[in-house]
From TrEMBL:
InterPro entries: Ferritin-like_SF (IPR009078), RNR-like (IPR012348). It comes from the Bacteria. This is Ferritin-like domain-containing protein. It comes from Gordonia tangerina.
């Protein structure tokens, strides 16, 4: 469990500078402020996990390969791709922290998981709204291709997380198969929210 939490803590601890710069570049000051608040909440998750890990003994890790890959992937292109990758991470977090909140055997761990989970429930709709706006100007055939590519990317990430964090999930009473099935189902709901059918062509 500690090793699993250490990896998630690394992922939550980024400074969000690249995302904030992209948000400011949209020219929408309200959105830029909202992104800054989102980053601050993610950093607060990292602080809570760090306190939990330090209190429990193992402490935090400086880095992990999965976070390095995640960050490089996010920064390959502009805001839209960054939000697509972030949304996958948010969906994974929804199921992961739900497993900890429901199956954790430590009251402090459960409390931290529930606090983070409460934030993540708001983060996902926030990302979805911006992505829906970003995809509206793209022709329908291209949107269909992007939807499928995004789905495949999400499935790949979910499988990697399930394999990497399997022992921690099992300790909370969740099998790898159950975690993957539940998380894919959540993500399919996200696809439906983001890729709203274009009424002009329906």
């Amino acid at each position: 469990m500690a090793r699993s939490l250490q990896k998630f803590q690394v992922g939550e601890s980024g400074d969000g500078r690249h995302l904030i710069e992209n948000a400011r570049a949209t020219g929408d000051p309200d959105y830029a402020i909202a992104v800054e608040l989102f980053v601050a909440e993610e950093q607060n998750h990292a602080r809570m996990l760090a306190h939990l890990l330090n209190a429990g003994g193992p402490g935090t890790k400086r880095s992990h390969w999965s976070d390095t890959v995640f960050v490089h992937l996010r920064r390959l292109m502009g805001l839209r791709l960054e939000l697509m990758v972030l949304t996958i991470a948010e969906v994974v977090a929804l199921r992961y922290y739900r497993a900890l909140a429901d199956g954790g055997r430590d009251s402090v761990l459960i409390d931290v998981a529930e606090r983070i989970l409460d934030d993540e429930r708001h983060h996902v709709p926030f990302q979805c709204r911006r992505l829906r706006i970003g995809f509206q100007a793209i022709p329908t055939p291209a949107r269909k291709v992007l939807r499928e590519l995004w789905r495949l990317m999400a499935v790949a990430v979910i499988v990697v997380v399930a394999v990497d964090h399997g022992p921690a999930l099992r300790a909370c009473g969740v099998s790898r198969r159950e975690f993957m099935a539940d998380t894919v189902l959540i993500f399919c709901g996200i696809l439906d929210r983001v890729f709203v059918p274009d009424r002009r062509t329906s």
